[in-house]
Amino acid sequence: MKTLMSVITFFLLSSCVSSQKEKSEFIEYQIEFMKGDSYQPAMGIDNPFKILCDSNYYVIPFYKNEEMIKGSKDWYILRPNVKDNMLLINFYDIKTDELKHTEKVELKINKLPNPYLQLLPCDTMCNSLESIKNVKTIWPQLYYYGIDIRCRVRNCTVSIIRGDEVIVAENYEEFKIDEKFNELIKKLKIGDVLKFSNLEGVKMPDGTTRTIENKEILIEY
């Protein structure tokens, strides 16, 4: 399937000064992001893009005052944060290598949304005693324009609720599926609710630490 690209078209007016009069020319260029026509770059992750321009010119982009180097298949990799949201693009004459114009592009940088706790491989189908016993991985996860982002949860409480009563609750400072978790799972009965709460210390790739939503699973059979 052909990769969708986002296309942002800018028309630039650059000035070329001669001894007789000032001459102006339009330079048309496009910034194409790999991940879709509505894609917006996000903090803390790779945001591949290309720059296409008039065939009379070539471009060199700069980010954080450093020249960006093309990577795989000529994609530039942008990994921004909110403090560095300015992209500098130099336009050069393809024949003379003369710098013709420098354009500053202020990028709209998105903050990644909070992930949701996922139990794999069953996740939304983890509503049976057998499926819960077969859970191999538990982590906060989100999809950003198809990009699979997985995190770690540190502090959390895992409890079993039977009716209005909390049967057992275990607190974790560094959550993982271990013997303590497996012993708790063995106490589950049909009709119980397995609850993950106080999901704190979720480390995000953008450097932030989040608290995410609780997760409750009703054991139906």
Main traits of this protein?
about 220 residues; mainly beta; Immunoglobulin-like; 2 domains; 17 strands; about 5% helix; disordered N terminus
What does this entry look like structurally?
The protein is mainly beta. It has two helices and 17 strands. Strand 12 and strand 13 form a beta hairpin.
Secondary structure layout plus pairing:
Blueprint: E1 6-17, E2 22-33, E3 47-53, E4 57-63, E5 66-67, E6 76-78, E7 86-93, E8 99-106, E9 116-120, H1 129-133, E10 137-144, E11 147-150, E12 155-162, E13 165-172, H2 179-185, E14 193-200, E15 202-203, E16 209-210, E17 215-218
Antiparallel strand pairs: 1-2, 2-3, 3-6, 4-5, 4-7, 7-8, 9-10, 10-11, 12-13, 12-14, 14-17, 15-16
Average predicted confidence as pLDDT: 85
Which class do the helix and strand fractions yield? mainly beta
Radius of gyration: 26 Å
Helix content: under 10%
Shape verdict: elongated
Please list the strands of the largest sheet in the order they lie side by side.
1-2-3-6
The number of helices is: 2
Q: Major sheet, described briefly? A: 4 strands, antiparallel
**pLDDT under 50 segments (min length 5)?**
1-24
N-to-C CA distance: 40 Å
Number of separate structural domains = 2
Number of strands: 17
> What is the string of helix and strand elements?
EEEEEEEEEHEEEEHEEEE
Strand content: over 45%
